[in-house]
Amino acid sequence: MRFGIVGGGIGGLTAALVIARRGHEVSVFERSSAFREVGAGVQISPNAGRVLHSLGLGDAFDEISVHPERMVFRRWEDDSIIRANDFDQAFADQYGMALASVARTDLIEILAQAVAAVPNINVSLASRVTHVEPGDETSTIFFADETSLPFDVVIGADGIHSVVRPSVGGVDSARFSGSVAYRALVPLDAVEDLPVDFTNRVGPDRHVVSYFIGKDRQYLNLVCISPEDTWSTESWTEPGTLDDLRERFEGWSPELLSILDRVEEPVFRWALYDREPLEQWGIGSTTLLGDACHPMLPFMAQGSCQAIEDAAILGRCLDDVDGVDGVDDVAGVVAALRRYETARQGRTAQVQTTSFMNRDLFHMPDGEMQQGRDEFLASGVAGFGPLEWVYSYDALTAAI
Ligand SMILES: Cc1cc2nc3c(=O)[nH]c(=O)nc-3n(C[C@H](O)[C@H](O)[C@H](O)COP(=O)(O)OP(=O)(O)OC[C@H]3O[C@@H](n4cnc5c(N)ncnc54)[C@H](O)[C@@H]3O)c2cc1C
Prior knowledge:
CATH architecture: 3-Layer(bba) Sandwich
CATH superfamily: FAD/NAD(P)-binding domain
Shape: globular
CATH topology: FAD/NAD(P)-binding domain
Oligomer: single chain
Bound molecules: flavin-adenine dinucleotide
Order of helices and strands: EHEEHEEHEHEEEEEEHEEEEHHEEHHHH
Structural class: alpha/beta
Strand order of the largest sheet: 5-4-13-14-15-12-17-16
Number of helices: 11
Largest sheet: 8 strands, mixed
CATH class: Alpha Beta
Distance between the termini: 22 Å
């Protein structure tokens, strides 16, 4: 069968690999003229890492990964530890692998290289899709150059501002979270003294996440979340200034300010949007995947991971369609798409909602509630208990 995938991000490329392995012809349409990723780092937890391993990318993925030694919550004002958990051997044994942080460009590169090596995947760069017309037997992709192409199945993996989403009825607007992320990098030689932690410094209205990324730990990646009333510029990323970033974290711990002093410009500002969970992901032979159907705030570090899980589950749903001796099973494939959507909607909505709620959890003003939160975090559920449901999910074996 012929599959058309709109969008060559982490979700679209993983889906291409998964589907092509099942013998289908896959065409990927990416609007950029080269595969590239904006933003610096991304964490890939075991629930997604095991999918990448299953695609034969284990060695390449390990090579680009940094494995943080601890997950540490610190208090904004004095850097005191609220809670720390080791990513130790017991973690790796429990979840089958370590948690990884990677440079997004590295991850896209290994996916793009893997895609290029598969003969039944064809990639068209600089191909901007305008919309899709879903049908029961074929769905048609329309391009900005006024051409169009029919496919047996179309998958919209084109991110939060998806043009495919409205084609299946998702006409809601993305919602601005009231926060912006400043994304910045510090070269390793300026931060060699710091532990290899995943750190979340939480404070009133703000939090700062830091972790190492890149081959041989090239950079400390910083994501500094700060309030913003509105986002008025057209683009959702724009250059920021280090002075502005420092000003927003005035009064925070000397440890954090010292890290900010070591930032290497440029600094980018990133508007944080999400959407409410979407009820209908597909019509006929068109469906959605990744941020196109479940964009979320990055406060669980799960957006890419969920897109990767989507791809794995979609592939498994298509297994039932494959055994038709070369005859295109049109009804079967449409049923498989609906099964995929049903299998994914509950979990991704839960991750979206929890990510949204984490904003309030991380940003509590000092006071009774914050003290209660800190006591709970310090003494609460052992180990990675609160994240157990996220990390233990195995898209390769989960019931569909
Ligand atoms: C600050 C921040 C930190 C984050 N940290 C993490 C993290 O640690 N872990 C994690 O798992 N997730 C994280 N995320 C979320 C993650 O970035 C997204 O969830 C992920 O990139 C979604 O992948 P995707 O492939 O669905 O969409 P995208 O990455 O948005 O890819 C969509 C692709 O489609 C292309 N495209 C768009 N429109 C068209 C069109 N009309 N025609 C053709 N092509 C088109 C785009 O160019 C792009 O290549 C973070 C997000 C932010 C903002």
